[in-house]
Amino acid sequence: MQTFAHEMLCEIYEQPEAIRRTLALYLKDGELKPDVAALLVGWSIPEGEILIAASGSSRHSGLAGEILLEDLCGLAVDVEYASEYSGRGDDYQQNVRHPSVLVLSQSGETSDTLAALREARLRGQKTLAITNAAGSSMEREADVSMPLAAGVERAIPATKSFTCQLAVLYLLALYEGKRVGRMDAGALAQHIADLISLPDSIETQLDGWREQMAGLARKYQSASTFLYLGRGVHYAIAREGALKLKEASYVHAEGYPAGELKHGPNALVSDRVPLVVLATVDRTLEGSVLRYEKTLQLLRDMKEQGAKVIAIANAGDMDVAELVIDCVPVKPAPEYLLPIAEVIPLQMFAYFMALERGVDVDRPRNLSKAVVEQAAS
């Protein structure tokens, strides 16, 4: 049994088992549980419109969830910062159509997200909460609860709760896709089989990622800023990778859609501002291949420009490896499951960057596990 010097690294390694426990809440004998499907009936409004409200890492999982629910289910989804949603005032309430509301929170007590949930309920909207804390306010107050089984997360930077959120959002998309008739039995069975196999695949990659990301942290520890880039569902992971680096190591980082780099941020790229590019691909999906080809062209342009690039790419992808300084391999997976795997080396990079810079990785300054209202505020 491995021992770990810090809770964050321990929780990174716990992710395969945490995902397995979470899947067991919603799957039985390789099928969606009928009792869960019954709970979800009536949550989505007939128009198929959903608003996701969350903060921090949970909002990034919501950004991924938006793509899942739109692409797999044909639903119309928007993602709001919970702090913005809960403070829009009477004009917003009177003049805007109100869809079903999905809130995401590790603790189930995040003040802005809880306020968004309560505001939605006051408007008579249907609500769904995805949380990791049994008995939390959000779990109790939402119309429907889809809990995680990540287990207690002690390190402040979210790791296993984030990947379990992605897994539950994928499951929600399967339940909704079946309900609205967007998936036949064969497609649904394949999605479930792919999801069930993912934790084993991740488990076999952890040690390799750990060794490589430790080396990259030593190599890049003097960088002043990082730009993280991703397209489609991978943009959410670029945002999350940048957030992890900021909160764990105090190194500035920003996440952008890959196609936006040349619309301003490219002016920052230099020896001291490397790029981290999500360049994985699902070669069975036409849209994924198109996204990948655009990313390859960006990498060609960045190589010509002399940029320092770290890429997260499919294992064995020499096209990407030849265009970047450092390439981190991820085993091939379906497009909408790749984010669960590819975020993990980014978590490790943030962890090892923190160690290189002497940061208390489990307790970064000015942050707490659950952001709640203070009496004096």
Helix and strand succession? HHEEHEHEHHEHEHEHHEHEEHEHEH
Radius of gyration: 20 Å
CATH topology of the largest domain: Rossmann fold
Count up the helices: 14
Helix content estimate:
40-55%
Quick one: how many beta strands?
12
Question: Strand order of the main beta sheet, please?
Answer: 4-3-5-6-7
Describe the model.
With 377 residues, the chain is α/β, with parallel strands linked by helices. It has helices at 7-13, 15-24, 34-40, 56-73, 82-85, 90-95, 111-122, 137-141, 160-179, 185-220, 234-249, 286-305, 318-321, 338-356; strands at 27-28, 31-32, 49-54, 76-81, 100-105, 127-131, 144-145, 225-230, 252-257, 275-279, 309-314, 326-330. Strands 4-3-5-6-7 form a five-stranded parallel sheet, with helices on both faces. A hairpin with a 2-residue loop joins β1 (27-28) and β2 (31-32). α4 (56-73) packs parallel to α9, α9 (160-179) packs antiparallel against α10 and α11 packs parallel to α14. The chain starts with 6 loop residues before the first helix and ends in a 21-residue tail after the last helix. The model is unreliable at 371-377 (pLDDT under 50).
Write the layout of secondary structure elements.
Layout: H1 7-13, H2 15-24, E1 27-28, E2 31-32, H3 34-40, E3 49-54, H4 56-73, E4 76-81, H5 82-85, H6 90-95, E5 100-105, H7 111-122, E6 127-131, H8 137-141, E7 144-145, H9 160-179, H10 185-220, E8 225-230, H11 234-249, E9 252-257, E10 275-279, H12 286-305, E11 309-314, H13 318-321, E12 326-330, H14 338-356
Parallel strand pairs: 3-4, 3-5, 5-6, 6-7, 8-9, 8-10, 10-11, 11-12
Antiparallel strand pairs: 1-2
Helix pairs in contact: 2-9, 2-10, 4-9, 4-11, 9-10, 9-14, 10-14, 11-14
